[in-house]
Amino acid sequence: MVDAFCFDEKFELTDAMKNKYEDDGFFVVKNFLDKEEVENIWKTLEEPDSIMKKGYVTHEPDGKKIMRILYSQPGNDFTGILARSEKIVNTVEELLGGEVYHYHSKFILKNAHEGGRHVWHQDYGYWYKHNVFPDMITVWMPIDKATRNNSCLQLLKGSHKCGRITHVPSSGFMQTEADPERIEQLKQVCEHLYCEMEPGDVLFQHCNLLHTSAPNDSDMRRWAFVACYNRRSNSSIVKHHHPQYSPIEKVPDSEIKKCTNFTDFSGKDFVNPIGNEDDRKLYSAYNIRKP
């Protein structure tokens, strides 16, 4: 279990939050998104022409699956407005100490019984070849209840302080794994936490924080929406599938609920490293059931 802060209408980043981010590498804010905002994320998945059609499925060595929807630009649909909202972007900019831009967003979808494992890694372990400094952050938003039983995130508290460690290709499809020997050493000095969260809770996570998630063998699905940001001064030095700096058009929080665009995903620049038509059909036809 992890400690959490509570969201209110006058939300602002506090010294306690900043200190926790610096000391622990993360913090959680409960009810950062209200019920209506979570429901509206779901609408982007439920509509007949939903964002689900843009996704892909990876088949892991153990027979499990991980479903993802990945894109580089936020766009103007509901998820884009949310990712550009002041309450998220202003918080991220304060934590990183400067202007940020949208690096990418994604849905990570682990279904009951078949959801695959994410190996121990740092997000910067994937990103450092294109970005010189770890001035990057992940904002993790569950849209299902995330528990120890259904593959919630596991974190090594304070592990971001060790800096980026060596990552090697994993047996998992397209996954990169932090050095297992180093992980075992860090487990001796960093508290191993299970980050259980409710829909609407939000995790702000340092890009060097070590984390993992187990296979989802439970009867409960575990779906999440994730937005990642890079500091402007750290704009990618190598062109790749995620963008270099472009200004993020922040919107007032009041615009989140005003947005009724759940089907026009133009300009999001989707990334599909698989390109398998059969998987895309499976993905778009998957039975969606809200919690």
CATH architecture: Sandwich
Q: What does the main sheet amount to?
A: 9 strands, mixed
Q: What general outline do the C-alpha atoms trace?
A: globular
Q: How many separate domains? A: 1
**What's the mean pLDDT score?**
92
Return the CATH class: Mainly Beta
Taken as a percent bin, the fraction of beta residues is 25-35%
In angstroms, what is the radius of gyration? Answer: 18 Å
* Total count of helical runs of at least 4 residues: 8
By secondary-structure content and strand pairing, the structural class works out as alpha+beta
Low-confidence stretches: 280-291
Q: Percent helix among the residues?
A: 10-25%
Order of helices and strands: EHEHEEHHEEHEEEEHEEEEHEH
Classified in CATH, the superfamily is q2cbj1_9rhob like domain
Please give the number of β-strands: 15
Q: What is the CATH topology classification name?
A: Jelly Rolls
Q: How widely separated are the two ends?
A: 21 Å
What is the strand and helix layout of this fold?
Blueprint: E1 5-6, H1 15-24, E2 26-30, H2 35-46, E3 56-59, E4 65-71, H3 78-83, H4 86-96, E5 100-110, E6 118-121, H5 123-127, E7 136-142, E8 153-156, E9 167-169, E10 176-178, H6 180-187, E11 192-195, E12 202-206, E13 211-213, E14 222-231, H7 254-258, E15 270-271, H8 277-284
Parallel strand pairs: 1-2
Antiparallel strand pairs: 2-12, 3-4, 4-5, 4-15, 5-14, 6-13, 7-12, 7-14, 8-11, 8-13, 9-10
Plain-language structure description:
This protein has 291 residues and is of the alpha+beta class. It has one domain (5-248, 264-284): q2cbj1_9rhob like domain (Jelly Rolls), CATH 2.60.120.620. The chain has eight helices and 15 strands. The strands form three sheets. Strands 1, 2, 3, 4, 5, 7, 12, 14 and 15 form a nine-stranded mixed beta sheet that branches. The chain has a four-stranded antiparallel beta sheet with strand order 6-13-8-11. Helix 1 (15-24) links the parallel strand 1 and strand 2 (26-30). The longest helix is centred in the N-terminal third of the chain and has 12 residues, at 35-46. The radius of gyration is 18 Å and the shape is globular. The model is unreliable at 280-291 (pLDDT under 50).
